[in-house]
C-alpha cells in the first residue's frame, strides 16, 4: 500500500513520512477521525513505509522488497493486527483465530466498512469486542524480538471496542514499551476509548476526504465517469465507504435498467427465447441481487404508472430511466398495474423462500407478456 494509493490526507501523510524518515517515531499513536476516511489504510501504508528496505525518493514504500511483498499479502512477520471479534467466531477470544477472514476483509474493504466486518463475523447485529485474551496475545508477540526488521508494529483497529480488562493489560505495554515497538491505534470514535489509554497515545487526527479527492479516486479505482464521480462525492460527506457504495449501487442500477428494458421489450414482442435467456441471466446474479432487481422492477412499474398519469412532479427517475419511460409508460395503466406489481412481488417472495430462480423468473416473464396486452 503506497501513500499515493490513498485519496487525500496530504498533511497526515507528510507527518507520518516525517516520523519515519527522521527515525523519531513515537511508540504509541492514535490515528483518529470519522469512519470511512481511510485511517486504517494510512496506518498500513505507514507500517509498510517503516519496514520498507528501499524507500523511494518521493516518500513511498518501494513495493517490491521482501518486506513490501509481505505487507501486500498481510503476512509481514513484524506486523501484528488486532481487531474486534465475536466470541462465537473464536473460542479463545484472540484475533489470530480469524486471520483468514481479516485478510479477506482488508483486501475487499480497505476503507474498513464495519457492517461488512459484521457480515464476515457471521452476525450482522453482533457487537464485537477486543477480549482480554488478545491483550495477552499482543504482549506475548511483542516480548519476542522482531524477525527481520527494526520495528515491531501493532495495527489495532477500533480500540474503543476493547474490553476494560484488555485495556488495562495493554496499558502496561503502552507505558513500558519494548524497545523498537510501535503501537498504532485507529479509532472511529476516540471519545469512547478508556481515557487512561487515550491520554497516553500521540494523536494523529484525520479529517473527512474532500469532494475533489473522492471524485478523483472514484474515477481511478472504479472507472466511473467524471460527472457521476463528482455527483456521488458530493453526497458522500467525505466518507469513502458511502461513496463506494453509492457508486457501486448506481452501477448496479444501470444494469438493472438494462435487464428491465430487455424484459419489457421482449415481452411486448413475445420473444419467448429471449425471455428464457433473460431468466437464466438474472438467475446467475445470485439470490440477493435477484431480490434487489425485482424490487427495482416494482419501483419502475410504479414510476411508469405515475408518469403515465402525467404527474411528473411525483416521478423520481434517473435520466436513463426517463428516456425509456417516455415511450414505455403508456403500457403501464390502471388495467394492469396492480396485477403486474403482484406478479413481481410474488416472484420476489418465492425467490426469497429459495424457489428455483430460473423457473420463477421465466414464469414471471410469461405473465408480463399477457399483462402488457391487457
Ligand atoms: Zn519496500
What fraction of residues sit in β-strands? 5-15%
Largest sheet: 5 strands, parallel
Helical residues, percent:
55-70%
CATH superfamily membership of the largest domain: P-loop containing nucleotide triphosphate hydrolases
End-to-end distance: 58 Å
Can you give me a brief rundown of this structure?
The protein is α/β, with parallel strands linked by helices and 374 residues long. The chain has 16 helices and five strands.
Could you explain the architecture of this structure?
This protein has helices at residues 10-22, 39-51, 66-72, 99-108, 114-121, 132-143, 164-175, 195-198, 211-222, 226-235, 240-268, 272-283, 287-308, 319-328, 337-352, 357-372, and strands at 28-32, 79-82, 152-157, 181-187, 202-205. Helix 7 (164-175) links the parallel strand 3 and strand 4 (181-187). It folds into 2 domains: 3-207, 3-Layer(aba) Sandwich (Rossmann fold); 252-372, Four Helix Bundle (Hemerythrin (Met), subunit A) (Up-down Bundle). 38% of the residues are buried. The protein is elongated and about 80 Å long. The model has no long low-confidence stretch (mean pLDDT 92). It contains 16 helices and 5 strands. The chain has a 5-stranded parallel β-sheet with strand order 2-3-4-1-5, sandwiched between helices. Helix 9 (211-222) packs across helix 10 (226-235), helix 11 packs across helix 13 (287-308) and helix 15 (337-352) runs antiparallel to helix 16. With 374 residues, the protein is α/β, with parallel strands linked by helices. The structure holds zinc ion (ZN). The site of zinc ion (ZN) has 8 residues, from helix 3.
Amino acid at each position: 500500500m503506497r501513500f499515493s494509493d490513498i485519496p487525500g490526507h496530504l498533511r497526515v501523510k507528510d507527518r507520518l513520512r516525517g516520523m519515519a524518515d527522521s527515525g523519531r517515531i513515537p511508540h504509541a499513536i492514535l490515528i483518529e477521525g470519522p469512519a470511512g476516511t481511510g485511517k486504517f489504510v494510512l496506518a498500513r501504508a505507514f507500517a509498510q513505509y517503516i519496514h520498507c528496505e528501499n524507500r523511494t525518493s518521493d516518500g513511498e514504500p518501494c513495493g517490491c522488497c521482501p518486506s513490501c511483498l509481505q505487507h501486500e499479502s498481510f503476512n509481514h512477520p513484524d506486523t501484528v493486527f488486532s481487531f474486534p471479534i465475536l466470541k462465537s467466531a473464536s473460542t479463545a477470544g484472540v484475533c489470530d483465530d480469524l486471520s483468514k477472514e481479516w485478510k479477506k476483509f482488508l483486501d475487499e474493504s480497505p476503507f474498513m466498512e464495519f457492517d461488512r466486518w459484521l457480515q464476515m463475523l457471521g452476525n450482522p447485529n453482533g457487537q464485537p469486542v477486543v477480549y482480554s485474551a488478545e491483550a495477552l496475545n499482543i504482549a506475548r508477540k511483542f516480548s519476542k524480538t522482531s524477525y527481520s526488521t527494526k520495528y515491531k508494529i501493532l495495527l489495532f483497529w477500533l480500540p474503543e471496542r476493547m474490553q476494560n480488562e484488555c485495556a488495562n493489560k495493554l496499558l502496561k505495554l503502552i507505558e513500558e514499551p519494548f524497545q523498537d515497538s510501535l503501537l498504532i491505534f485507529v479509532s472511529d470514535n476516540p471519545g469512547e476509548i478508556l481515557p487512561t489509554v487515550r491520554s497516553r497515545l500521540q494523536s494523529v487526527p484525520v479529517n473527512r476526504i474532500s469532494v475533489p479527492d473522492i471524485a478523483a479516486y472514484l474515477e481511478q479505482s472504479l472507472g466511473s465517469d467524471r460527472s457521476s464521480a463528482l455527483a456521488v462525492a458530493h453526497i458522500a460527506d467525505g466518507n469513502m465507504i458511502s461513496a463506494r457504495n453509492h457508486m457501486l449501487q448506481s452501477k448496479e442500477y444501470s444494469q438493472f435498467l438494462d435487464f428491465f428494458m430487455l424484459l419489457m421489450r421482449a415481452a411486448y414482442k413475445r420473444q419467448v427465447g429471449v425471455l428464457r435467456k433473460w431468466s437464466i441471466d438474472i438467475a446467475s446474479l445470485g439470490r440477493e441481487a435477484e431480490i434487489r432487481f425485482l424490487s427495482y422492477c416494482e419501483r419502475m412499474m410504479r414510476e411508469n404508472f405515475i408518469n403515465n398519469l402525467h404527474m411528473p412532479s411525483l416521478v423520481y427517475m434517473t435520466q436513463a430511466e426517463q428516456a425509456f419511460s417516455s415511450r414505455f409508460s403508456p403500457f403501464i395503466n390502471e388495467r394492469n398495474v396492480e396485477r403486474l406489481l403482484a406478479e413481481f412481488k410474488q416472484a420476489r417472495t418465492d425467490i426469497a423462500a429459495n424457489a428455483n430462480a430460473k423457473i420463477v423468473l421465466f414464469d414471471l416473464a410469461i405473465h408480463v407478456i399477457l399483462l402488457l396486452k391487457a
